Amino acid sequence: MKTLKIALACMLVLTCMFVLADYVLPALQSFAEAGAERARPKPPPNLATTQPRVTKQTPTQLRETLSAEYHTLIAEQYSHLNAVGSKTTKTKRGYGLWATHEFFGRYTFSAGRQAHIIDQWVFANRIRLQQAEINQVGVMSSDRPFGDSSCWFDV
Questions:
Q1: What is the pTM of this model?
Q2: In the predicted model, is pLDDT for residue 45 greater than 70?
Q3: Mean per-residue pLDDT, 92-112
Q4: What's the pLDDT tens digit per position in 124-139?
Q5: What are the DSSP calls for 30-77, one per residue?
Q6: DSSP classification of residue 10
Q7: Domain edges within the chain
Q8: Is the distance from CB of 97 to CB of 63 less than 8 angstroms?
Q9: pLDDT classification of 49: cutoffs 50, 70, 90
Q10: Edge to edge, what strands does the sheet with 85-90 contain?
Q11: 95 touches 88 (CB < 8 A)
């Protein structure tokens, strides 16, 4: 009698396993595949048609672009100053990119966090600055250019 109960229990377990394998597992598998299909990222659009064509800028054009970007950075960092300007000058080894204001001087980078932010900008744009032949990036006084009235980072 005891063996019969064990045999019936084993048959019940095997029947449940076959039912599970035949009906439940395929349903779970199709549900998982449908979820994976929904989660699969769509392929990107054809990049050749969606991205604008990149044209190589001349050093002069690149200097103008970098000057505008640098002016925006300085205007944001020194937002308390009105009429911050920008200027590109010829140097012995290339060009200098300057932000100008009457309050800028040789100690401008000594106080505040702006020097670190400008140094990071120079580091991030180093290749473009070199392509534009810019070897100095800094600030200078609009009243007394050069001499003691400027400070810069070398590129």
A1: 0.62
A2: no
A3: 89
A4: 999 999 999 999 999 9
A5: HHHHHHHHHHSPPPPP-HHHHSPPP-PPPHHHHHHHHHHHHHHHHHHH
A6: H
A7: 2-49, 59-154
A8: yes
A9: very low
A10: 85-90, 95-101, 134-141, 150-154
A11: yes
